[in-house]
Specification:
The chain contains ten helices and 14 strands. It has 332 residues and is α+β, with helices and mostly antiparallel strands.
């Protein structure tokens, strides 16, 4: 299996003068037009914060099963909380991982569009109160990194830097804290199956030295191993939609590690408000000529309204939660 030489972009270049900032924006545009993935350094995220979050993740997964199941996601109509190994699906196939899903901390909404059911409180383990504190700090830090990236993207695509700020609304973020346990099977196993992210932007922290992420490039699966001090960044279906296909969301997957090894990864999804509709960016002529339209996949339609994308993704990934709390949507 070959490795994909993903470009490495340094976010701090935005602060190094107009020429360096313009070069960063050009590299950002090229990386997400050509591949849809890149490594990002210079984020200002401290190694100390990374270490605290990594330690908190390991501490959670080491809790007794009863403590983890006390916040199992089948108890949450909002798809929050803990998912046991084998409890999530991609493309209908079981993913071999356990995880916690954490979204914006809000009061539930009554009525309105079906995607309002995604709004609500998180489930936090009483046995590990420190988890909530470090996740809040991680959320605030990565939200600011995401906003800087989106402003740079807007300018790189010929729009005003405030384009995404104006159309995003209150971001519907999602943090997943994931553990991929080792598998003894001789063949490679699905940690998480091939998919495209349903939103705008993903910042992925991967445990140092732990591979497994693969990206589809030129029709082949290629490895995208972690780079020390860098996030793996990819775009989702909403950014493909907003650019008329100039930027392309890319299929990716994770292969389970071989036992006794395991792997921790923490993706941060930065997405628009559920009721936000991203309009098409009016691209400069030279970019518009290279926009080949949004991917046409009848089994996975891309919606302009983020809430419809998000609900589609959650219902498919967690059929048990859907059956318990949203049987009417499943029937429909």
């Amino acid at each position: 299996m070959a490795e994909l030489p993903l470009p490495v972009l340094d976010l701090s270049r935005l602060d190094a003068g107009p020429e360096a900032a313009e070069q960063f924006r050009a590299e950002l545009r090229a990386a997400t037009h050509d591949v849809g993935f890149f490594y990002l350094t210079g984020t200002g995220v401290s190694p100390e914060l990374e270490d605290r979050l990594h330690r908190a993740a390991r501490d959670f997964f080491a809790l007794p099963e009863a403590d983890k199941l006390s916040i199992e996601n089948v108890k949450s109509p909002h798809f929050r909380g803990y998912t046991r190994v084998g409890g999530e699906r991609t493309q209908g196939e079981v993913d071999w991982r356990e995880q916690i899903d954490i979204g914006p901390e809000r009061e539930p909404l009554a009525g309105g569009p079906a995607f309002n059911r995604l709004v609500g409180p998180n489930l936090w383990p009483e046995a590990q109160p420190e988890l909530r504190e470090v996740v809040a700090e991680w959320h605030a830090t990565l939200s600011e990194v995401s906003r800087r990236l989106l402003r740079a993207w807007a300018e790189a695509l010929g729009a005003d830097s405030s384009y995404f700020d104006e159309h995003f609304g209150e971001p519907q973020t999602l943090i997943k804290i994931v553990r991929y346990p080792g598998k003894v099977d001789p063949e490679q196993q699905q940690g998480v199956g091939a998919h495209k992210d349903s939103g705008v932007l993903t910042l992925l922290w991967v445990e140092p030295g732990k591979g497994g992420l693969q990206v589809r490039y030129d029709g082949e699966w290629v490895d995208a191993p972690p780079v020390p001090g860098a996030f793996v960044v990819n775009i989702g279906e909403m950014l493909e939609y907003a650019t008329g296909g100039y930027l392309k969301a890319t299929d990716h997957r994770v292969i389970s590690p071989k036992a006794p090894d395991e792997r921790i990864s923490i993706p941060f999804f930065f997405n628009p408000a559920l009721d936000s509709r991203l309009p098409l960016i009016e691209l400069p002529a030279e970019l518009a000529a290279e926009a080949h339209g949004v991917t046409d996949d009848p089994s996975n339609p891309i919606h302009a309204l983020y809430g419809e994308n998000a609900l589609k993704s959650r219902l498919r990934a967690h059929p048990d939660v859907a059956a318990i709390h949203h049987a009417d949507l499943v029937r429909a």
